[in-house]
Every structure is written in structure tokens, then in C-alpha cells.
């Protein structure tokens, strides 16, 4: 039984979600050929701390950085490093905050300079599948409806869904019940009720769905070494239409941060 959040809790989660959204936009402004992923991490950590919050990923189960930064064939949980981004790469940036006792958690995959048409399509389809999932995150549905919406959309383009990792509830803990798989069957899984806060996060591969864990025990790679994309937003389950807490508006609409 998953307890829905109170409206007071939702407001605290919203504050975190907005901070995470703005942090992703700050990072996005720095994504360019020639930049290292450690530099992106530094930008995020500084911005989060300047806003009075804590980067929640740092130290989580031993994770060594503020951001998970996953380039090209890395699906998720990559370490920031001295790798220098180059034209045509894609870089998934996953960001978490802890503020006033609650968590924020969202991700965006940025193209580095110009990417090829197939890669652009992978990014567009993955992001669109996230919104398909959000459309299904309404009271009365079940988690399987979200998974089905993501999977059926993605597979219609010939891309594949990573099954080893999934979305989750969010609150005082970064990962709460229910799990939110990106594949599934309609009418199956956990019942969604008004006030449940979910992170929906499709991880979509250009090629096959197989993945493996790197020797560092964190980075998840595609088995065929083709590219993978990842987008994540936080939503509140509501009757009729989910309410988005985090947003890509700071990245996509403004091109700059609004306060
Ligand atoms: Mg995340
Ligand atoms: Mg997450």
C-alpha cells in the first residue's frame, strides 16, 4: 500500500523539482564540444549548494558525484570524468537534490553540437515517450498503464526499452514505492491514486535492449554499444491529468534561467 503525499509534502517536492529543473538548465548551457563531464558536475554542485540544497546523489550508496553523467552508450549512472565531450555525442544528465527534507530527481539528455539524424530521433522519441507515460499517470490507472504507454510508443520506432531499471516514487527517500517500469501491460501493477508522486524515467536504446554493468559497479552500458537516451520528470498523480512538478521549460523555452 503506497501512501499518497499530503499537499504540504507536494509543495516541498515542488520546490525540489523546480531547483532540479533549473540546475539541468544551468548544466545545459555549458554542454558543448571541448567541455569535460567533470566541469558539468561542478556547475551543478555549485548551483545546488548556492540555492541552499544538497546534491542528493553525492555519497548515495557510495556514488562519487553530484550528477550521474552518461555519455553515448552509457544508459545511466555514469561518473563525471575528464572525458571531453565531442560534436555528435549525447550526454544524459541526471540530477538529484535534497532540500527541506525532501528529494528532487530529474534527467535530460543533451545533444553535443550537431548529432546525426538517427540520434536526434532517439532523443525525440525517448522524450515523447516520457510524456506518453505522464499522460497515463492518472488516478484509477495502474503502473502497467504507464509502462505500456512508454513501451508501445518507443517500440513503434524500432527502439528498445531497458528493463533492468525503472522509475519510482519520490518523497523523503530518493527511491520510494511504487516501482514504475517502462514496459508492461495495461491494467497491471500498482494502483495509482491522487497525490502519489512519481518519477517517470524511460531509458531507451537505439539498438537492442541488452545492458551490462561496468566494472566500477555503477555505469550501465548498452551491450551492443549503440547509443541510449534517458529523460526523467517528477509528477503528481491526479484525477484526469497528472500534474508535472519538474519541467524542461527552463531548458527549452527560455534558453536561460528565470527566477
Ligand atoms: Mg534521476
Ligand atoms: Mg529517478
How does this model look, in words?
It is a single chain. The chain is of the alpha+beta class and 259 residues long. It has helices at 7-30, 37-50, 117-135, 143-155, 249-252, and strands spanning 54-55, 67-71, 74-76, 90-99, 102-111, 160-161, 167-169, 176-180, 197-200, 203-205, 211-213, 220-222, 228-230, 233-236, 243-244. Helix 1 runs antiparallel to helix 2 and helix 3 packs antiparallel against helix 4 (143-155). It is globular and about 45 Å long. It starts with 6 loop residues before the first helix and ends in a 7-residue tail after the last helix. The relative contact order is 0.18. The mean pLDDT is 97. It binds magnesium ion (MG) (2 copies). One magnesium ion binds at residues 94, 105, 107, 232.
Major beta sheet summary? 5 strands, antiparallel
**What is the general shape?**
globular
Strand order of the largest sheet: 8-7-9-14-15
The distinct bound ligands, ions and cofactors come out as: magnesium ion
Q: Write down how many β-strands occur, each being a DSSP E stretch of 2 or more residues.
A: 15
Total helices: the number is 5
Q: Let me know the average pLDDT.
A: 97
Give the structural class. Answer: alpha+beta
Rg from Cα: 17 Å
Order of helix and strand elements from N to C terminus: HHEEEEEHHEEEEEEEEEEH
